[in-house]
Amino acid sequence: MTVLHRAGFVDISGSNCYAVRVIMMAREATVAVTGASGMLGQEVCASAPGWATVVALTRADADLSLPEQARRAIASARPDIVVHCAAYTSVDGATADPEAARLGNEVATRNVAAVCGDTGARLLFVSTDYVFAGASDRPYTEDSMPSPVNMYGFTKLAAEVEAMKVARHLIVRTQWLFGAGGGSFVASILRAARAGKSLRVVQDEIGHPTYAPDLAQGLWRLLETPAEGIVHLTNTGVCSRLELAQAAVAEAGLGDTPISGIPSSEWPSETARPLCAVLESTRLQRLGIAPLRHWREALRDYVAILQERWQEQAND
Ligand SMILES: NC(=O)c1ccc[n+]([C@@H]2O[C@H](COP(=O)([O-])OP(=O)(O)OC[C@H]3O[C@@H](n4cnc5c(N)ncnc54)[C@H](OP(=O)(O)O)[C@@H]3O)[C@@H](O)[C@H]2O)c1
């Protein structure tokens, strides 16, 4: 177990157990974070405010698709709040193996929700633009009707339904995540560009790129409000996949990379994707939450972190 005081991590056991208790100068709430080793979960744990005592849960602590494991891990944390970031996130994987996606999304969320229901914990569930068809030229608000077009979207929507069974639930939909702690579209583009490859990138899929650390801070701010129901939260600014790829390579000093735009119909995938599932929020302002910054600013911070890593690797 690793204990985090505000000053940093202290390894107190040397064991390979991933359970992490982040002890704050805390007032108030104990917050269990599932999927704590995932891209978003890491950032949620790292950006916890002073009022939160975070118990970080990974698959090593519990396979959340198994009710007894989920119950034991979450209930023993005695959380006031559960931030449920764990999910089956491979979009193409869900098409190939729908049962794995159902277990990781619908069933795991049912199990997490059941513990919240029994203990009275508030549940924040992270969801996705993929619950929408993406066939409209207008943005989707919290009141828009979901209509997924692929198995990943179906299982995340089913998970939303499970989360709604908790009396105090908050479902936060986001899209196009990128961050230093995980794989993403931007990471793949930069890896290919650094390898000197020329790129073909879909030009007719649009959305809000969202930086995981910015989203994590937004989640904590939402938890400081009495928000319930559904909220859409992304970085500001809409672009196409092609524009995002061009911005990323330019930011990384790889602007010479040849990039050509292609229609999504030419992208080799068995999986239908929402082309225009732009999330818009009609609720954030009323909740007193400022919009997240523009994705281009966030991209600059992300690329700076990557460039430091690349430099360190070159020095090794
Ligand atoms: N990435 C995006 O572009 C995006 C966009 C919109 C919404 N979201 C949502 O944002 C949330 C976080 O996504 P992310 O990108 O951070 O995902 P991620 O990096 O794939 O992390 C998901 C985490 O969940 C864990 N997990 C999966 N199934 C589990 C199970 N049965 N029991 C315990 N742990 C399990 C995974 O562990 P293992 O590594 O061991 O499998 C992983 O650590 C998800 O709800 C996702 O649907 C993501």
What does this entry look like structurally?
By secondary structure, the protein is of the alpha/beta class. The chain has a single domain (2-178, 209-238, 272-294), classed as Rossmann fold (3-Layer(aba) Sandwich), CATH 3.40.50. It is 36% helix and 21% strand. The strands form 5 sheets. The protein has a 9-stranded mixed beta sheet, with helices on both faces. Strands 9-12 form a two-stranded parallel ribbon. The protein has a two-stranded parallel sheet with strand order 10-16. Strand 7 (122-128), helix 5 and strand 8 (169-174) form a beta-alpha-beta unit. Helix 1 (39-46) crosses helix 7 (212-223) and helix 6 crosses helix 8 (241-251). Mean pLDDT is 92; it is low at 1-26. The structure holds NADP nicotinamide-adenine-dinucleotide phosphate (NAP). NADP nicotinamide-adenine-dinucleotide phosphate binds at residues 35, 37-41, 58-59, 63-65, 85-89, 104, 108, 126, 128, 156, 174-177, 182.
Please outline the major beta sheet: 9 strands, mixed
Whole-number total of structural domains: 1
Number of strands: 17
User: What's the architecture in CATH terms?
Assistant: 3-Layer(aba) Sandwich
Q: Write out the strand line-up for the largest beta sheet, numbering strands in chain order.
A: 2-1-3-5-4-6-7-8-13
Q: Provide the succession of SSEs.
A: EEEEHEHEHHEHEEHEEEHEEEHEEH
Poorly predicted tracts of residues: 1-26
Q: Give the termini separation.
A: 29 Å
By CATH reckoning, the class would read Alpha Beta
Bound molecules: NADP nicotinamide-adenine-dinucleotide phosphate
Number of helices: 9
Q: What's the rounded overall pLDDT mean?
A: 92
Class from helix and strand fractions: alpha/beta
CATH domain fold name: Rossmann fold
Q: Which of globular, elongated, flat, extended, rod-shaped describes the shape? A: globular
- Superfamily (CATH H level) name: NAD(P)-binding Rossmann-like Domain
Beta-strand level of the residues, as a percent range? 15-25%
Helix percent reads 25-40%
How big is the Rg? 19 Å
